[in-house]
Design goal:
about 180 residues; Troponin_sf; Troponin I, cardiac muscle; acetylation
Length: about 180
């Protein structure tokens, strides 16, 4: 029952939050619309179309002059932007060049035992001893027949000299059969 109540409360809170967010979005939308209307009324006066041809031509000339001024301003802004981006790229390149000039010191290999590492990581909580070699079993290596044969052969030159010539080949055939 308790889990159901918690889940129901969570769903109720979620729905309330969504409702509040929806109303906030509507308010923001209406505020943006009023700001847009205010800006347009301030910067774009209503257009009065005159009746005679000369007045229409004069109006077109005025509009073209305003368009040219706006284009010049836009061009100037673009040039300033390009100049500032170029300066930023140059500064970044200089920064990378400066970073590259200084050599970083080579890292030293530090020998630490497992106990020292655990002590450094865990601090005072470390109580277990990690002597890995103490837990290893002692294994005695037994001599295999191959290893004994290799030890008994001795110097390889003597072995080759024994097998050279007809006698050596004869011995080889005799030993194989």
């Amino acid at each position: 029952k308790r889990n159901r109540a918690i889940t129901a409360r969570r769903l109720h809170l979620k729905s309330v939050m969504l409702q509040i967010a929806a109303t906030e979005l509507e308010k923001e939308k209406s505020v943006r619309e009023t700001e847009k209307q205010n800006y347009l009324s301030e910067h774009c006066p209503p257009l009065h179309v005159p009746g005679s041809m000369a007045e229409v031509q004069e109006l077109c000339k005025q509009l073209h002059a305003k368009i040219d001024a706006a284009e010049e301003e836009k061009y100037d802004m673009e040039i300033k932007l390009q100049k500032s981006t170029k300066e930023l790229e140059d500064m970044n390149q200089k920064l990378f060049d400066l970073r590259g000039k200084f050599k970083r010191p080579p890292l030293r290999r530090v020998r630490m035992s497992a106990d020292a590492m655990l002590k450094a990581l865990l601090g005072s909580k470390h109580k277990v001893c990690m002597d890995l070699r103490a837990n290893l079993k002692q294994v005695k290596k037994e001599d295999t027949e191959k290893e004994r044969d290799l030890r008994d052969v001795g110097d390889w030159r003597k072995n080759i000299e024994e097998k050279s010539g007809m006698e050596g080949r004869k011995k080889m055939f005799e030993t194989e059969s």
